[in-house]
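To whoever is on call:

I kicked off a structure prediction for a single chain this morning and the downstream step that reads the tokens threw a length-mismatch warning. I double-checked the sequence; it's 363 residues and nothing unusual in it as far as I can see. Pasting both halves so you can look.
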Amino acid sequence: MRIAQIAPLYEAIPPRLYGGTERIVSYLTEELVARGHDVTLFATGEAETSARLAVVRERALRLDPSPLKSAIAAHLAMLHEVQRRAAEFDILHFHLSHFLHFPMFEHMRECTVTTPHGRLDYSDLAPAYALWQGFPMISISNRQRRPLPAANWVGTVHHGLPLDLYEPLPESQRGIGEPYLAFLGRLSRDKRPDRAIEIARRSGMRLKIAAKIGDDDRPYFHEVVEPLLDHDMVDFIGEIDETEKPAFLGNAAGLLFPIDWPEPFGLVVIEAMAFGTPVIAWNEGAMPEIVDNGVTGFVVDTVDSAVKCVGMLDRLDRREVRRVFEQRFSATRMARDYEAIYAAMAAGSGCSERVRTDHERAE
């Protein structure tokens, strides 16, 4: 199949540091190419890919030092290029948030599929979707669908990682030094690092925090989190890159994921599982779908329960955590799931031929 992957422009593909959506777009693109598809990736110039690369902006927005840049303008320019080339593809797969592309592709919505990677409970999203009904949508968890029950959901595809991307550390290399809990992600109110600190302090186990502080999160960090870091059981490392994840996650006794929002997936959860590291996650969003309670970790509702589960982490078999990860969350499985949806949508639709005819009529 001829497939267009349309990525957000905030981070490089794959991202240099933080960036869950862009990471998944990269893994999916590479796996589809390996499976023999003709894939074009619409992204920024730093992208590293085996697909055909359509450069729509030289630098990712986050990596661009210019203070004068417009995310909306950059994405609209990209969408114009996708629309211009639409006849080249059997399917257009959008990974953009908030349905920005809907007005421009309403005449060919059957040739598109949209994977929203974020939360869908913003007050304006349901009315916006109602204006452009029928666009095929793929959720990243069943829980993600709840705010938009009337949307045209054509499938749910859980995220996946390449099996050789992360591997459990050998026993001879793991567990050297003081046991610790890990917190990885963003230092935002939704992610509740303050809750993670409380759990660690009450359990008596060291907490290592490797996290990004976004501009929007700085007030919360300074007012709530920073005062809690002044404790001899809490180590704030800062943002880490891919090369640092194996030691950070692979050596941890467990990952704390004490979120306070309807998390649509939680990529760091399966990253931990890839190392065989169990997860203590809050009973929010997709966590009951992703974490097999008592097998790959624990799903909890209170700090008391989380503290209790810290003492139970060593009862879980880290080899079984990895085995479940391989079975449920591989990039190959993810690509197969998307591939099946693409095929079902493209069958008999004649998308590229119809789009080409529309262009000819317009001329």
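Update from on-call: the warning came from a stale cache, not from the record. Cleared it. Sanity check on the structure: The longest strand covers residues 38-44.
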